[in-house]
Design goal:
The complex is a heterodimer. By secondary structure, chain A is of the alpha/beta class. Chain A has one domain: Amidase signature (AS) enzymes (Alpha-Beta Complex), CATH 3.90.1300. Helices cover 37% and strands 13% of the residues of chain A. Chain A has helices at residues 8-16, 22-40, 48-60, 102-109, 152-159, 176-182, 216-226, 270-285, 301-316, 335-346, 349-362, 367-391, 414-418, 425-429, 458-470, and strands spanning 43-46, 71-75, 113-118, 165-170, 185-188, 208-213, 256-260, 289-293, 394-398, 434-442, 445-453. Chain A has an 11-stranded mixed sheet with strand order 1-3-2-4-6-5-10-11-9-7-8, with helices on both faces. The longest helix of chain A has 25 residues, at 367-391. Chain A is globular. Chain B is mainly alpha-helical. Chain B has a domain at 1-42: Histone, subunit A (Orthogonal Bundle), CATH 1.10.20. Chain B has helices spanning 5-14, 21-38, 73-77; strands at residues 83-84, 87-88. Chain B has a two-stranded antiparallel ribbon. In chain B, strand 1 (83-84) and strand 2 (87-88) form a beta hairpin. Chain B is flat and about 55 Å long. Chain B starts with a helix and ends in a 6-residue tail after the last strand. Classes of the chains: A alpha/beta, B mainly alpha. At the A-B interface, helix 9, helix 10, helix 11, helix 12 and helix 13 of A face helix 1 and helix 2 of B.
Chain lengths: 484, 94
């Protein structure tokens, strides 16, 4: 085994045992990036020298606490002071943040070593990472397929062994969907669980930062560090964070699990459905109570999301006007032309589309019929979950209707590409925690199972995910990159 | 609902986006497709339903007003497309 193949907790053991050093680990990861990056293309920036420097600093301290010496990768919408943060957009191609996000600061203070910034759909809008203004990332399981998105670089890098863990962000499925497509573990915590200070906003009532990792234990451990109150994000709730790792006891005996019939219906690939049903059987064998339930408004989540997400984006992205940061149209002779010229040049198609859609949904004469009505539908969707959670501890469903699709296959076909998120968007609408873990393979591609929990009950989600992982070996199967 | 080119021009103007004639045609068609999809929401009654504006049961979050160091002015201005002294420079406004 090479160091780059190991999980975070395995690396921690080697460091604690004096068997390796952070510099060795970082070199192994950098060598892996060099070996496979031309195939996977998950990094926008690799912070090579800075990473080696920090690793040597950590090694010089002589002992390894917390995440000391463990490499990390961050989605490129997470601000890192002094390190370019582009949101995969021409608009921010040269943006160097003057401040550090809370999540990256917490990991940095724990001793984690930033190795690079990861590719994404521009401003986190997309489901394939093909909307990056720079290049498309490829799925390590099949280089002709997309890695999913918008946190496609974050998922592909973990799957390819380029980084032991990464952070992503999830507004409508942007952590869970790429985690499913790349066969890794991806957690979107409860809305308000993790600070978003320093994370470039897409849709503020839905955005959450979360963790992508090789296994559930790593994910729970990293979440423990980034979760919890931050006075700099007033939506980040002041609630104690339980010890997630301590709760991983491998037991689901007596746990009440619902599987919503709407998530197994039309549009869901038969093999995907079968694998998730088999997983539910496994839970039953392990002593859980598994029953069918209903979330009747599920089909309305996606259309409502494509009004609310864009509406919020149209407001959030108004700050990109060429005045204080980002690119600028220098040909304009007055300030209004400068604004629109800058935005025309700086934004890609999908970003423009969502800004237009959101501006329309909020515009005079259409606000009530579109925006306000979508907010009412959001209430109905959230109420569905509340009802099911009166009787059940967790909800299990497929993460996505299909496995990863081909690069370029869905380009331009908006509704088809939006459907990738049909099973993840409702969870954002209700603000709940959701994880995707590998539950099998079909056609050589990984399939993800989604576990949804009650608000602020990530602990039960992790516990259930861990029990499944311990009783299956899907997480140990790795893509065969470099074998050409 | 189908958007006309004129409506697309109006929305683009509100959003401060400069669109080419080609883009206007493309966006009119694409946005109409998404809005048609959004119209499927009309199949359910939302009468009497309270809009969900905020998912968390929190209202305003207050803190004490304290003096703290702000970000470095030079670091912030280093990202400006055009600055002069300690100010942003923009084309003429009037």
């Amino acid at each position: 085994m090479e160091l780059y193949e190991l999980t975070v907790h395995e690396l921690q053991e080697l460091l604690a045992g004096g068997i390796t050093s952070s510099a060795e680990i970082v070199k192994s990861v950098l060598a892996r990036i060099d070996a496979v990056e031309d195939q996977v293309k998950s990094f926008i920036t690799v912070t090579r020298e800075q990473a080696l420097d920090k690793a040597r600093q950590v090694d010089a301290q002589g002992s390894y606490q917390g995440l000391a010496g463990i490499p990390m990768g961050l989605k490129d919408n997470i601000c890192t002071r002094g390190v370019k943060t582009t949101c995969a957009s021409r608009m921010l191609a040269d943006f160097i943040p003057p401040y550090e996000s809370t999540v990256s600061r917490r990991l940095d203070q724990q001793g984690s070593v930033l190795v690079g910034k990861l590719n994404m759909d521009e401003f986190a809008m997309g489901s394939s990472t093909e909307n990056s203004a720079f290049f498309a990332t490829r799925n390590p399981w099949d280089l002709t397929k997309v890695p999913g998105g918008s946190s496609g670089g974050s998922a592909a890098a973990v799957a390819a062994g380029q980084i032991p863990f990464s952070l992503g962000s999830d507004t409508g499925g942007s952590i869970r969907q790429p985690a499913a497509y790349c066969g890794v573990v991806g957690m979107k915590p409860t809305y308000g669980r993790v600070s978003r200070w320093g994370v470039v906003a897409y849709a503020s009532s839905l955005d959450q930062v979360g963790v992508l990792s090789k296994d559930v234990r790593d994910n729970a451990m990293i979440m423990q560090i980034i979760a919890g109150h931050d006075p700099l994000d007033s939506n980040c709730v002041d609630l104690a964070v339980p010890d997630y790792v301590a709760g991983l006891d491998g037991s689901v005996r007596g746990m009440r699990i619902a599987y919503p019939r709407e998530y197994f219906g039309v549009g869901v690939n038969e093999s995907v459905r079968d694998l998730v049903m088999q997983a539910l059987k496994k839970y039953q064998e392990l002593g859980a109570i598994v029953e069918e339930a209903s979330l009747p408004h599920s089909e309305y989540a996606l259309p409502a999301y494509y009004l609310l997400g864009p509406a919020e984006a149209s407001a959030n992205l108004a700050c990109f006007d060429g005045v204080r940061f980002g690119c600028r149209d220098n040909t304009a002779e007055n300030v209004v032309d400068m604004f629109s010229g800058t935005r025309d040049h700086g934004f890609g198609d999908e970003v423009k589309r969502r800004i237009m859609l959101g501006t329309f949904a909020l515009s005079s004469g259409y606000y009530d019929a579109y925006y306000l009505n979508a907010l009412k539908v959001r209430r109905l969707i959230a109420n569905d979950f509340t009802k099911v959670f009166n009787d059940y501890d967790i909800i299990i469903a497929p993460t996505t209707p299909t496995t990863a699709f081909g690069l370029g296959e869905q380009r331009g076909d908006l509704l088809t590409i939006y459907m990738n998120d049909v099973l993840t968007v409702p969870v954002n609408m209700a603000g709940l925690p959701g994880i995707s873990i590998p539950c099998g393979f079909t056609g050589g591609l990984p399939v993800g199972m989604q576990i949804i929990g009650k608000a602020f009950d990530e602990a039960t989600v992790y516990k259930a995910a861990y029990a499944f992982e311990q009783n299956t070996d899907f997480h140990t199967i790795k893509p065969q990159l470099g074998v050409r | 609902m189908a958007l006309t080119i004129k409506e697309v021009e109006h929305v683009a103007q509100l959003a401060r986006l400069k669109l080419t004639e080609e883009e206007k045609v493309k966006f009119a068609q694409q946005l109409s497709t998404v809005l048609d999809y959004a119209d499927t929401l009309n199949a359910i009654s939302t009468e009497g339903v309270e809009p969900l504006i905020h998912i968390l049961p929190i209202r305003n979050v207050f803190r004490e007003d304290q003096r703290k160091p702000s970000m470095e002015r030079e670091e912030i201005l280093a990202n400006a497309p055009l600055a002069e002294g300690f100010q942003y420079k923009v084309p003429k406004i009037m």
